[in-house]
Amino acid sequence: MTARPSDSTTQPGRVPLWYPVVEDADDWSRGLCACFSNCGLCVMAYLCPCVLFGRIARHAWLGDDCCFCCCCSSLWLCGCVGQYAHARTHGRIRDTYRLKGSPVGDCLLAVFCGQCLLIQEAQEIRYRNGSVVDVHI
């Protein structure tokens, strides 16, 4: 991963804004609209998104901390705070597996395509690590 300045003005005393650029990023294993390849996951994402988000966040950030899982589950219900937490979690998954995307894209997806994004994240975790995100309905 390399960093590039986001603007060309590098005046003395002024710190340029930096953003990470992944040169050889992989594609996601499933597209954003591949929701219906796992119907159980789809139902969970649309009926209980907070539970699925908690499980995904637990995997992305801490592993097996149940308290963190419950806190993340409740964040989903908090409007902008929940969308920000979802965007950060998506970015964490993207960085962990070196996948294509950007922080701005993460935010836009979390705001406008939250449930589809949950399904994509759960499918990616399952694809990369087996059945880490336990979704049995």
Give an overview of the whole structure:
With 137 residues, the chain is mostly helical. It has a domain of 91 residues. The protein is 55% helix and 6% strand. Strands 1-2 form a two-stranded antiparallel sheet. Helix 1 packs across helix 6 and helix 2 packs across helix 3. The longest helix is centred in the middle third of the chain and has 17 residues. The relative contact order is 0.19. The N terminus is likely disordered.
Number of strands: 2
* Strand order in the largest sheet: 1-2
Low-confidence stretches: 1-21
Gross morphology is globular
Structural class determined from secondary elements: mainly alpha
What proportion strand?
5-15%
Largest sheet: 2 strands, antiparallel
Rounded radius of gyration (Å): 16 Å
Order of helices and strands: EEHHHHHH
Q: Roughly how much helix do the residues carry, as a percent range?
A: 55-70%
Query: Would you tell me the overall average pLDDT?
Result: 76
User: Helical segment tally?
Assistant: 6
Distance, first to last CA: 39 Å
What is the fold's blueprint, element by element?
Elements: E1 2-5, E2 18-21, H1 39-47, H2 49-62, H3 66-75, H4 80-96, H5 103-112, H6 114-129
Antiparallel strand pairs: 1-2
Helix pairs in contact: 1-2, 1-6, 2-3, 2-4, 2-6, 4-5, 4-6
In short:
It is built from six helices and two strands.
